[in-house]
Amino acid sequence: MKKTLNDLTKDDWNTLFPIELVDHNPEWKNIYENEKERIIDKVGSETILRIEHFGSSSIPSIKSKPYIDLMIEIPKQMLFNENLIVKFTELGYSHFVVPTRENIEAYSSFGKGYNVDGTKEQIFHIHMCPKNNVMWKQIDFRDFLNSNLEKAKQYENLKIELATKFKNDRGSYVLGKTDFVNETLDIISRKSSTQDDV
To answer: In Å, how far are 66, 107, 118 from 32, measured between CA atoms?
Structure first.
């Protein structure tokens, strides 16, 4: 039977797809817009309530992995809906369930552009969940870094350091960014509550 992305072990992912950061590509915005259109055309706007480009490729001032990360809002009752998953499969995506961890509820993730032989096309990552999932705070993180160059540069420096250290350890690379992301979200939250008090 043909091997699929779901058959790959953690070690396979680390070996086949090492962490590589590149300079920002202005074309990423257009690639995102085209993919957004394809998704809405296929799935429909009554199910797809919102799509956002997030992650480092949505922050022009910093280096990024050349991946397009999309956050998709769906109605709560559509989470893990089999027909919906089939539609994304028809668009070329592989589906993964992200289990509940700490304060983040389980949600659907999709990937496209990876090949089991280690070759890559344009890679897309989708995080799909209802609006009350904590994952949506990533949009606040994106907006904050886009309006705060100094903080964005700090994030870039951390990413470069981690990419050098954990080139073949995707989990440690992600984990290494967690404190920075959480501290930044705390700053955003405090700013927001201060503004609410005014």
So the answer is: 12, 21, 23
Closest by CA position to 166, among listed 10, 23, 55, 4: 10
Provide the residue-wise pLDDT of the chain in tens; the chain has 198 residues.
667 888 888 898 888 899 999 999 999 999 999 999 999 999 999 999 999 999 999 999 999 999 999 999 999 999 999 999 999 999 999 999 999 988 899 999 999 999 888 878 999 999 999 999 999 999 999 999 999 999 999 999 999 999 999 999 999 999 999 999 999 999 999 988 776 654
Q: Which residues contact 43 (CB under 8 A, 6 or more apart)?
A: 84, 87, 88
Residues 180 and 16: their CA atoms lie apart, in Å, by: 27
Which residues 6+ apart lie within 8 Å of 42 measured at CB?
Answer: 87, 90, 91
